[in-house]
Amino acid sequence: MPNKRTSSLRLVAIWLGALAISLLGFYLLDHGIMSMQGLPLNLDLTPAQ
Amino acid sequence: MNIFSRVKLFALPLLLLLLGLVGVAWGADGAAPQLLRGDYPDIGISSRAVVWVLAQLHLFFGALILAVPLFVLVIEFLGIITGDQRYDEMAREFLKISLVGFTLTAIFGVILTIALFSLYPQLMGYLARVFDGQWLVYLGVFLLENIFLYAYYYSWNRLREGGQKWLHLGLGLMLNLSGVTIMILANAWVTFMMAPSGITTDGTVVGDIWDVMHGPLWHPMNLHRFIANIAFGGAVVGAYAAFKFLSSRDPVARAHYDWMGYTSNFIAILAFLPLPFAGYWLMAEIYAYSQQMGITAMGGILAWLFIVQAVLIGTILLAGNFYLWSGMSRSEGAARYQWLIKYIALVLVAGFLVWVTPHTLILTTAEQAALGGNYHKILGPLGIMPAKNIAVNLMLIATFLSFQLYRRADKVATVPWAGAGNALMTAIYLVAIANIIFVGVYYGYFTNTVYKVGSSVIQVASTLVVICSGIVIDSLMFRGAKKLPSHWGQVSDRSQYALFALPVAYTWLMGLMGYVRSSVKTHWHIYGVMKDNSPDNYIPTIGYAGNMITLVTVLFLLGLLFMFWIADRRIKA
Q1: Is the dihedral of CA B532, B536, B542, B546 positive or negative?
Q2: Tens digit of pLDDT for each residue in A19-45?
Q3: What 8-state DSSP symbol labels residue B358?
Q4: Whole-angstrom Cα Rg for chain B
Q5: Would you kindly state where each structural domain of chain B is located, as residue ranges?
Q6: What is the pTM of this model?
Q7: Chain A interface mutation, best of B431, B450, B453, B466, highest count of A Cβ atoms under 10 Å
Q8: What is the ipTM of this complex?
Q9: What is the pLDDT of residue B3?
Q10: Is B19 a residue whose pLDDT tops 80?
Q11: Distance from A48 to chain B by nearest Cα, in Å?
Q12: Closest Cα in chain B to A24
């Protein structure tokens, strides 16, 4: 059943893609907002100061 | 226009002008007067209590008449662009309901002005001098608002056809612009008393009127009151719709008032969602202006009132959500989402419980020993701001989810990317919730205070991202969607009681937070400049404040019943 398999893979790819976009978006949001307040973060989100 | 309306139109401006001139003449020197106990008129009862009741009633009705024309304008505009006559009829009915509110606002405004100038003559004289020409602008705008109101209302049928409808909409716009201007001008008086600007420490005016008005709290207050008034107005007219729904047996009328109640709740909840953020900005500015003032509000005697605030906001959110869940029964497509409701309810109840958990308890020595210290080891951490920030943001997200499900209930998306859109929306919800909890716990409990405070902005932003992406994704995804049958009027009677709960909780909440805002000045008329030496120059007990707030709430609700009664007679006629 290649069609069903392709469809399932596509579904997984969509969900993983959506999750990846959201994770990246909120990660950048955290950095951006804290930097704007003069409170920079390290890459692992620990306080840089 | 009847004789009553004519009196209203001219009485308040003339009175204010007269009293303003008296105040200017009284002013004399540059510095603010420093008053002694004997300078205050003694009327046998508390002057503060008299002004408290009058000011709060004036503000309640003022908030209502500011908000209703705003959404009347938007609904009328919707009627024009959709060509659906029902919008136009509903907009006019909303305006009809609020019409008596304009008169009541003016009546309480006149009585309040007389009370203020009689009971606090030196203070009002000083304020009249400081705001000088602004009083005249206020009077002018007040007159304009009344002219636009009557022109807008009475020309509704005459300017109904073709291009004339746009002219009518223009009148509504002018009515709203003048209403908002009045609010902004009056806010400047209040914020000047809390955080004066444009004057020296002894009260001598050194700046122009813009410097005086443009204090640090002015803009946060403008935004907060503007949004709050819309939510409040939506809740009040929702109660009217619920009353009409329950009292009607005609299916057509029930369908109409069901739709009206839905629209009102839509406005009340949508405006309520960003409200905590506007409140947060106001409190942050209060702290920035005076840490002492901020601590008095949130860490001192007034802190317990924020627990009461949590109860009221919890009531609003539970009632608003319950109405949305009940309303989903109108649509045949709602069954797809009903499994989610129990989880939303769980988040709301858990968030509510965290929010009402107090931090500092008044304990006896024995209780303290039994507890093992001042704070309970589990409940203690839930009493501080990081936990409450998590709770409130999750409650708002849960409410938005109810709202989104309700909007989706009667539609099926037909765009080819609907699956991807849903995946993205779900991922945004999940990651936003994880982010809010993560930053709340990590920065709130394991880093320093600066990062703790800074991280609350991330939480606000995460909630706003969910709301904005939900609106954008849904508006794109459900363009040209398949509509499922929806049956207006087929909603449970039970749901309508939620629409009654909303205005009661909103009114009580506005009274409560108005009291907190005013009380943070403690023993100052004008903070740091002009001391209050009246017999009421202290923060009353929480019990006394609670009784006063309840009194004004009950009086307002009675006024509201009177307003509904008049509106009902007018609509029947």
Answers
A1: negative
A2: 999 999 999 999 999 999 999 999 999
A3: -
A4: 25
A5: 3-27+35-331+487-572, 332-360+371-486
A6: 0.87
A7: B431
A8: 0.93
A9: 46
A10: no
A11: 10
A12: B431
